[in-house]
Specification:
By secondary structure, this protein is an alpha+beta fold. The chain has five helices and 19 strands. The model is unreliable at about 1-45 (pLDDT under 50).
């Protein structure tokens, strides 16, 4: 009896050991597979070039349906807003709504942008993006960026609880600010960007604090497509036959719009020229010199530089998110075209 009992116990223990060994082997196999997948994913992330990250970012912002809650920082100023994107009836639809301060809304349907602000009448203009800080600032700008910036990967980080890849954009000259882009490793969405001046001081930061990616666009975006469009407002002319010319501009910058109008309060005639390198815009205003002489150079909040220059009997003002020395040099380079 005892011999049979001990033999039975031996068989039970042996069976349990075999089962445990098989479970351990299965567990180890699963762990190894998980580690392999993780390594593959990390390897795939590491193998992407900075340009590939930018390309995938642009695709994400045109293909995905998503909602973002965003904070925008400009030195002593903080704003928050919601950003929604969706594809409705093969149309690109974007909505941006303020969450702090005055209530304002903007939305884009393909190349028509509508602005709704409490201080002005709603109006619609033809444009590719909404003119305010947003993740779409860098979308489809790969050529402009590679022409003017050196790209490099700058490690990993976390934004809104998501793992991100940092991509550094360093200006090839001294006429542009530098950027660091924080891209979601899963969706490739831009979740943060930092802008730095030439002394590496933080000028501007946009950061996402909440991300929702969905299969379908929101009902709000769907309803916007069916909204009756407003008549298009005419923007400054694209007829670039201005009477002014520049003896010098930073590489890549060119005149993209011109306009002449009179100021409402003083009826003073002012010529306006828009300069752009495809990423940053600089405004130039030319008017007859007034009795008051302004400081030649001013720098304001948010990294916006203002340069004023009096040339004979005209006052020239240049405003833009660029180094102060750059806008000052532009102000000194404008001249009247010889007839």
């Amino acid at each position: 009896m005892l011999k049979g009992f001990w033999w039975s116990m031996f068989l039970i223990l042996a069976t349990l050991n075999v089962v445990a060994a098989e479970q351990d082997a299965a567990t180890n196999n699963e762990v190894n597979q998980a580690q392999t997948v993780t390594v593959v994913k990390k390897s795939a992330i590491a193998q992407k070039t900075p340009l590939q990250w930018l390309e995938q970012m642009s695709h994400a912002y045109t293909d995905h349906n998503f909602q973002l809650s965003i904070i925008h920082l400009q030195r002593n100023r903080i704003q928050s807003f919601s950003f929604e994107h969706g594809v409705v009836d093969n149309k690109q639809v974007v909505y941006i709504g303020s969450l702090t301060g005055a209530v304002s809304h903007s939305y884009r349907i393909d190349d028509h942008v509508t602005y709704i602000d409490p201080d002005t009448q709603p109006y619609t203009v033809k444009a590719d993006i909404i003119a305010m800080p947003s993740p779409s600032f860098f979308i489809n700008k790969q050529q402009v960026i590679t022409d003017n910036y050196t790209l490099s990967l700058a490690g990993k980080g976390r934004v809104a609880g998501r793992v991100v890849q940092l991509v550094r954009l360093k200006s090839k000259d001294q006429h542009r600010f530098n950027y660091v882009l924080w891209l979601d490793s899963q969706s490739s969405l831009l979740l943060r960007y930092d802008s730095y001046d030439l002394n590496n001081n933080l000028v501007e930061q946009m950061q996402v604090i909440k991300v929702e990616v969905a299969k379908q666009p929101t009902k709000g975006l769907t309803s916007l497509v069916n909204t009756k469009p407003l008549p298009l407002t005419i923007l400054p002319s694209e007829n670039l036959n201005s009477r002014w010319q520049f003896n010098w501009l930073p590489q890549g910058y060119q005149v993209t719009a011109t306009d002449s109008h009179r100021l409402t309060k003083t009826a003073q005639s002012v010529d306006y020229l828009m300069l752009s390198d495809g990423l940053t815009e600089i405004s130039v205003y030319v008017a007859l010199a007034g009795e008051i002489s302004f400081p030649e150079r001013i720098i304001t909040e948010g990294g916006i530089a203002v340069a004023r220059h009096r040339q004979s009997n005209i006052d020239i003002t240049v405003v833009g998110k660029a180094p102060l020395e750059t806008v000052t040099k532009i102000a000194h380079s404008i001249t009247l075209k010889q007839q």
